[in-house]
Amino acid sequence: MKRESAVLGVILGLASASLMAAEQSPKTIFYGQLGLSAGWQDGQDFDVGAYDARFGLKGLIDLGDIKVKYVGEVQHVTAAKHTDGELLEIREAKAVVISDFGMLALAGAGESNTYADLYAPVDIQEINSGTPHSHDGLFQQSQFAKSILAYITPQWHGLQLKTAVITLTNDTGSDSDVLRLGAVYRKSGLKIAANVLKTSEQHLGREQDYFRYAFMGEYRWGKVTLASLVEVNQDSPVGDSTVYAAAAKYFVGNWEYRLSQQYKDWQGDYDNQSISAAAVHYHFSPHFSVFTEGALYSKPVINKSGYTSDSNLNFGMMIRF
Prior knowledge:
Layout: H1 2-16, E1 27-41, E2 47-62, E3 67-76, E4 88-99, E5 102-111, H2 113-119, E6 144-152, E7 159-166, E8 178-187, E9 190-199, H3 201-204, E10 210-221, E11 224-234, E12 241-252, E13 255-266, E14 273-285, E15 288-297, E16 301-302, E17 308-309, E18 312-320
Antiparallel strand pairs: 1-2, 1-18, 2-3, 3-4, 4-5, 5-6, 6-7, 7-8, 8-9, 9-10, 10-11, 11-12, 12-13, 13-14, 14-15, 15-18, 16-17
């Protein structure tokens, strides 16, 4: 609580330097998206449902030298993530202060910047993905996090450094339950990112920290996007592993083709796992698209909520507004 108060004090101090500038009215927009699908999964009957349903508000407060972006979003909790009686949960609740000195973010909940930088380029499918509203992938990295304090440097010749502290609990004796250090380099169609994440031994309730290393490369050339990722889990509570992932997208007119492959190499006595997926999308407009997607699982994947994913075939649509 003391740390959050100090951060708020810094933000207010920075904002006071811009009081002489006329504040513009906040530019707030309402947005959302709805993903619906119907299909079959091995061992289950035909099923119809909403795999992604969310809406929110986002906007910008312009204070001259300082700008504040904010977002608040809720989502419907689907079967893949349902653990209690709650049908809605807060997906995003964050503010980002932007200045010439970089960006400072404070979030009660929000998408992990680690996921956005490294995992999103390879986690491209609608149904067979590592996102919480869908079937889980093989990554240890989650898409969302809570209680985040993050700082991002300005870009220098395409290079940007990032750090974050995540406080999952406040009674472990460690102010930083999770610490993230990352770097992203961008030039033309090339993007390279590296990340190390440490989960403290105090939070895990054991005598050693858990480290996760990730490296990603992405290249966009015309209508083709290629990406690959390696995730290394060292001293993980669920067992050490290395995950390899690759993905490709190809656009032709309104048609989009997606291919992805994930392979998890367990270091212990577990059987290695793989997921191969392919999809075809047709975009009628930026606001409406339809798709068919299929995947082959080497063995069922059980996520943290106890939901089991297996080989499947789905048809669906996505509505954005």
